[in-house]
Amino acid sequence: VKVFITGCTGFIAKNIVKLLIERGYEVVGTARSKAKGDKLREDLKSDKFSYEIVEDIIKSDAFDEALKKHADAGVVLHTASPFFYDSTDPENDLVIPAIEGTKNILNAVHKFGTKVERFVITSSDAAIYSYEDEQNGSLSFDETSWNNISYEDAIKDPISAYYGAKSFAEKAAWAFVKEHNPSFKLTAVNPVYVFGPQAFDSDAKGKLNTSNEMIQELITKGPDFNFENAKGGFIDVRDVALAHIKAFENADTVGKRLFMVSSHFSSQMILDILNERFPQLKGKIPVGKPGTGEEDIKTLSKVSNSATKDLLQFPFKSLAESVEDTVKQILKEN
Ligand code: NDP
Questions:
Q1: Does residue 217 belong to any structural domain of this protein?
Q2: In whole angstroms, what is the distance from residue 253 CA to residue 260 CA?
């Protein structure tokens, strides 16, 4: 089966592509630049991988040529979507590309991907709850919950915009399927904060993807770094990658949302893991208030993803394992 994956040079996407190749799939990705596409091809060292350039996912026909060329694709994974918070124009930077990119790939697949049977969208927990609701300990969420933020409220600031963007994009995908009844079946993967190693050690340099950069900051800003004690849900990227593959390999995931959460975390919990497991970082990173992490996360909303775990049937990696592997890779000399 040929798998078509949008945004193949992203953090999560590269981990998916690597796993797909290991499992014998033929993969064609879309990349924004030749440099990034070529680097991935060199890193993978596999003739089962190729890529097409799609510079701007906002253009309505953005994916048409690539899909026409790969009309034999049987699966589409849509991961391309902006994920960053440093924006002064959140509507144009975050919301519009997320929505239009999703509509454009769906239309292209509907028109030209006649062999596509399964379509998996990389959504987010941001489509399950708003940032405020996530932090509200009296609320509970599961695979059936939706972030119903309004467009007007979403474009006010970058965090609301990212949460809104993911919610609007996933809603657009389900609405598309309902309206057009395409030949392919839809599944959503909704990860919380994703940590874990880059697919290739050479990618663990310089500024990292948004979620891992949070860990990198904790180890590079010195012992007096006045860190913001972030908290939320955590899942390892290797589990997210496997979930994308199970999402299209299994029949019982059709029409489902896979809520990918292993546990809750706080920055303090990450620091405790680092101070315990990396003696070479002692004195170079903040200590904070060791052991108080469990208190931090008590204020978070309750999450339940037993339906997802029943469907996927594999255990999710722990925060300690994920943080350790992430930082080992960052510290590796290469
Ligand atoms: P990355 O920033 O590493 O990947 C984002 C991908 O989308 C890249 O391939 C990027 O291309 C592409 N992209 C971003 N903006 C545009 C645009 N305007 N036009 C075309 N392509 C674009 O982040 P992640 O790998 O973490 O994110 C991948 C997906 O996972 C996203 O949909 C994100 O919302 C979702 N997600 C991530 C979580 C996390 O904690 N990491 C949590 C929940 C969901 P390029 O490589 O050229 O920059």
A1: no
A2: 14
